[in-house]
Structure formats: C-alpha cells, structure tokens
Automatic annotation (TrEMBL):
Residue ranges with Polar residues bias: 563-572
Top-rank taxon, per record: Bacteria
Region annotation Disordered: where it falls in the sequence: 549-592
The enzyme's E.C. designation: 2.7.13.3
Main location: membrane
Lineage, highest ranks first: Bacteria, Bacillati, Actinomycetota, Actinomycetes, Micrococcales
Record keyword Transmembrane present: yes
Histidine kinase domain segment(s): 307-523
Record's protein name: Sensor histidine kinase MtrB
Organism (species): Dermacoccus profundi
Length: 592
C-alpha cells in the first residue's frame, strides 16, 4: 500500500525540525559567546563595521560604474542613430519610384543594412508609421528578433510633439532563454515620399556592459570579502594583544580572591599593558601586606582575648569563694551590707557568664570548637527551653507558644543547639513587650528549623545585619532584663555554622522580629531550603519589608516569605488566648 502524503511529509518535517533546533542551538551558542567573550565582541563589531563600509563603498562605486557605462552607451547609440537615420532618409529621398511596393522593399533593405554593420548583429531596428500619420502606407518593418518590441508610448508621443529631435529611453529586452538585458532605444523621425512620417527606432542591447558589470560585481564581492576577513584578522591580532593581558589579570585576581596572595602578573615590555601589569602587581603586594597586618592584628586580638580570659579565671575563682562566703552570711549584716552582698553575687554571676562567653568565642576564633553529635528530639529540646524560661516569661507578662505539629529527631550537639535556642527565646522575651512569643519547629527532606517569633519593638532598617555582631545592642540606653553579655547571638551564629547550618534574622518596626535556625537533617547533606517561616506573609508590600533583610551565617542576606496564618499549640498551658486564635498573632489590646 503506498504511503500517504502525510507519511511522506513526516521525514521532511523531522528534518526541518532538526534543522531549526540546530539553528537555535547555534544562535544560543553565539549569544553566550557574545556575552562572555570580549575578544569575540570586538572582532564581531570590527568585522560588522568593515562589512558595512565595504558594502557602502562598493555600492557607490558599482552604481558609479553602471551609470558611466549607461551614459557611454547612450551617447554612442545617439551618434550611431543620428548617422543611420540620415542614411535612411537619404535613401528614401534619392529614390524616383514612390509606389508602395518599391518603398516597402527599400525599407526592408535599409533596415537590414543598418541593423548589422560589420560584425555587430545585436542591433535591432524597427520602422513603423508615426503616431500622427493617418495616411495608408507601408507596413511595419523590423529586423529578426525585434518583432515583439513595442516602442513605449511616451517615446512615440515625444516624437509626435518634437519630430526634429531624437528621443532616447532605456528599456528591457526579454531573451528567449528567459533572461533580461537592458537596452538603449533611440527613436527618430523619417519622411517617406507618398507614405508620410515614419518613426525609426534603433535598439542597442547592453549585453557587453551587463557582462562587464557582472565582472565588476564579482570582483567587488571577492575583494570585499577578502577585505573583511583581513580586517577581522587584524582585529583578532590587535585584541589578542589587549585581551590576553586582561584575561591574565582576571585569572590572577581570581586566584588572589581564592587566597593565593603570592600570585602576580607577568610584565613584558614597557607599553601601557606592561604599566598596567606593574600597577596590578603593586596593588596585589599592597593588599597582601595589609591582609598580613590584619591577620597578625586579628591573631593578636584573639590571643589577647584568650589569655585575658584564662588569666581572669584564677582571681575570679578566689573572688567567687569570698563572695559566696559573704553572701551566705548576709543575714548577720546590716540591711545595706546584705544588699551589697546580693549585688556582688549577681554581678559576679554576670562576670562569670561573660568570661565563659569570651572563652567560647576564643575557641571559635582559634578553630578549636568541635561537635559532639547525638540524636536529639528537636521538639523536646524546644519544649525544654520554653520550660526554662517560663518563670521569666510570667514575670514579664509574655506567653510562650510552641508550634510543632510533628516530632523530628536529628543528630546535633545538644549543648550548642540548646544554647542557641536559649539565646533566641530570652531575647524574644526581653524585646517582646508583653506580646506572645512563638517557637515554631518545622522539617523537610534536607533540613530542620526552629523559628522564634516575637511581636515587640522589631528591628529598624539595617539592624538585621548587625544583630549578630559582638556586643552590639539595638538601643544602648535600654536596660537588660535578662543579664545578657552581648555575645549570645554571636556565639549562636558560630554554633549554627559549626553544624553546617545558618541563623537568620528578620525584623520591622512595629511588626516584631523573627530569628530562624536551620540545621541539616543529615550531616554532610546540603540544605536545599529552610522549612520554617521567617518573614510574615502578611508583610508583603515593599515599603513594609524595607528593613526586613535577613542576616545569614554565611555572611549573605536574602528574603524568605511564608509565615503561616495560623499557629498550632504543643501544650495546653502554652495555648494562645482565645482572642488571638485564627490570627497570625496580634498584639494585645492596650486596655487588657
């Protein structure tokens, strides 16, 4: 059974689709190369400009040559037509027989004679009655090949209006082989005795001129292509001299950025590129020297912090023993002395906490911090941290809410993660302004997260990038209620990094703040995305989240949305008040 037309078109369509796909891939490749390669762009633009100039100059020269050939051919045709017309007129004037048969034969002989002088057989001649001649006379006479030529009406009309002058026009001749060639037609008036006015048209085909123009065109095309290629080669060599040092500088700068501070550019010659390489090397040497100085200063500061922290432990232990003895005997002292002993004991507690934090920071700076991973229920750990802060929360009028729909167990260092959550929850309670604090536990395939959300004063624009700085406080005039050292969030950030996780912060004035800890669910498996909320979904307008930039443990910042519209509960004692259920969490009314 013969295949249908659709089946026959199938391979052709597949071939066309493959060709289109290949063209698209090639265009995409050229686009990528154009964007990434300065070398390619310079060569392309240079060749494009060269091609434009070659086309413009070639077109002007070609048109000039063509116009010159047409003018030359027209002038010679007019001179030949003038001479041949005079010969034909003389032949008619010299005849003594004026019968139509004799005149017709004479017309044929004259047309044949002037159409093929010497070896020129391309000239065409047409003799026909003039447009203003109504007398009966001889029929139209033409040479072979000119039978289909019809003189244009404007030329015939011009001869009627001005029979004393020649009328010239460029026409197109159609060859039998299907090709066209321009020709010069020159019309003149002759008077035949006993027959009246007749028009004599001489047609001069420009075959040789067309061949000459074809040779010129091909020469221009070959010369232009060669010139464009030569321009491209020159551009390639020129840009190579410039781009190669620039690429070398880029590679050296990349290696410098990677930490290879000894990398330098090779200096050759004394030109501008050599001076650029010398300046680049001088800049690299200066940066290396300054970085070395900063590293030495950093090591000195770290060593100073470590040494001071260790040296303070011995006298602090002695002071602690004495302070404990005084504090235990405060009942035997006067009221103001007993109060002083209590203040002394409290401040010593803060001093010991600060010293412990300084020692922990020094271990992070020295790279001596290690993890001790054990499987831990993150939900249970968050519940324990909430229980630790219940008394403080009740004292400040803050309700603690745990939102953990499912339990999740992950291998973590319990002591370090617990310290992170303690810092986040205590900070949320301190800055919550009597509004609820919500602890949200979420998990996905690659990560677990704990978000601590408060609805207090929030963070101003730019403060989310500073909250993890050491000893930074949003309001230095604000008194601490939890006795923090100013290093809690810095240590929490380092603990998160140690777990290959990250700690982020978001805040906006009047909207509160949210801190999110994200840890890998399986050690060594990269975190694809954080499952927990950070930015409230209700804050979507750009003007409302202008200050909502998030500080991450890797030093970057990003925006994350998707805070849930409802808050679940883990314990009945931590449930939200009835007036807050079904809402994101609203600030209590001032009259409550």
């Amino acid at each position: 059974m013969p295949p249908s037309s659709l089946e026959r078109r199938g391979p052709a369509r597949r071939a066309l689709s493959a060709a289109v796909a290949g063209a698209r891939r090639f265009a995409a490749f050229l686009g990528r190369t154009w964007r990434r390669s300065l070398h390619f762009r310079v060569i392309s633009l240079t060749m494009l400009m060269g091609l434009t100039v070659v086309l413009a100059v070639g077109a002007l020269m070609y048109q000039g040559i063509a116009d010159g050939l047409v003018r030359s051919k027209t002038s010679s045709a007019q001179q030949v037509a003038l001479r041949e017309t005079a010969d034909v007129q003389n032949a008619f004037d010299a005849t003594d027989k004026t019968d139509l048969t004799t005149l017709y034969n004479l017309s044929r002989d004259s047309v044949r004679r002037i159409s093929s002088p010497l070896d020129d057989t391309s000239r065409l001649v047409v003799l026909m009655r003039a447009g203003d001649n109504a007398r009966p006379g001889i029929p139209r006479v033409s040479t072979a090949g000119a039978g289909e030529i019809t003189p244009p009406a404007d030329v015939r009309g011009a001869l009627v209006r001005d029979p004393a002058h020649q009328q010239t026009k460029i026409i197109t001749l159609h060859h039998a082989d299907g090709g066209d060639v321009p020709a010069v037609m020159v019309g003149s008036r002759v008077n035949i005795p006993n027959a009246g006015a007749y028009d004599l048209y001489l047609v001069f085909p420009m075959d040789k001129e067309a061949q000459s123009l074809g040779i010129v065109r091909n020469s221009f095309a070959a010369g232009g292509l060669g010139l464009v290629l030569l321009i491209g080669a020159c551009a390639y060599l020129a840009t190579r001299l410039v781009v190669t040092p620039v690429r070398s500088a880029a590679h050296v700068s990349e290696r410098l950025a990677a930490g290879n501070l000894d990398e330098r550019m090779r200096v050759r010659g004394e030109d501008d590129i050599a001076r650029l390489a010398t300046s680049f090397n001088a800049m690299a040497s200066s940066l290396q020297r300054q970085i070395g100085q900063l590293e030495d200063l950093s090591h000195l500061q770290q060593r100073f912090t470590s040494d001071v922290s260790h040296e303070l432990r011995t006298p602090l232990t002695t002071i602690r023993m004495a302070a404990d003895m005084i504090h235990d005997s405060r009942g035997d002292f006067a009221a103001h002395v007993a109060r002083s002993s209590e203040l002394l004991s409290k401040e010593l507690d803060r001093f010991e906490a600060l010293l412990a934090d300084l020692l922990e920071i020094s271990r992070f700076d020295a790279g001596g911090a290690v993890l001790s991973r054990t499987p831990v229920s993150l939900t249970a750990l968050a519940a324990d941290v909430i229980d630790m802060h219940e008394q403080l929360a009740q004292k400040l009028g803050v309700k603690l809410v745990l939102d953990a729909p499912t339990d999740v167990e992950v291998p973590i260092d319990r002591r370090r993660v617990e310290r992170i959550l303690r810092n986040l929850v205590s900070n949320a309670i301190e800055h919550g302004q009597n509004a609820p604090v919500v602890v949200i536990v979420r998990s996905n395939v690659t990560a677990v997260s704990v978000s601590v959300r408060d609805y207090g004063i929030g963070l101003k624009e730019g403060e989310a990038d500073k909250v993890f700085d050491r000893f930074w406080r949003a309001d230095p005039a604000r008194a601490r209620t939890t006795g923090g050292t100013g290093l809690g969030l810095s240590i929490s950030l380092e603990d998160a990094r140690l777990h290959d996780g990250f700690l982020e912060a978001w805040g906006a004035p009047g909207e509160g703040s949210c801190f999110r800890l994200t840890l890998p669910r399986h050690p060594g498996v990269p975190i694809a995305s954080s499952p927990g909320p950070l930015q409230p979904s209700s804050v979507t307008a750009p003007k409302q989240i202008a200050s909502g930039t998030m500080r991450t443990s890797d030093g970057g910042a990003r925006l994350v949305s998707g805070y849930p519209s409802t808050v679940g509960t883990k314990k009945a004692t931590n449930a939200l008040p009835p007036t807050l259920e079904g809402e994101a969490v609203a600030r209590p009314r001032s009259d409550e």
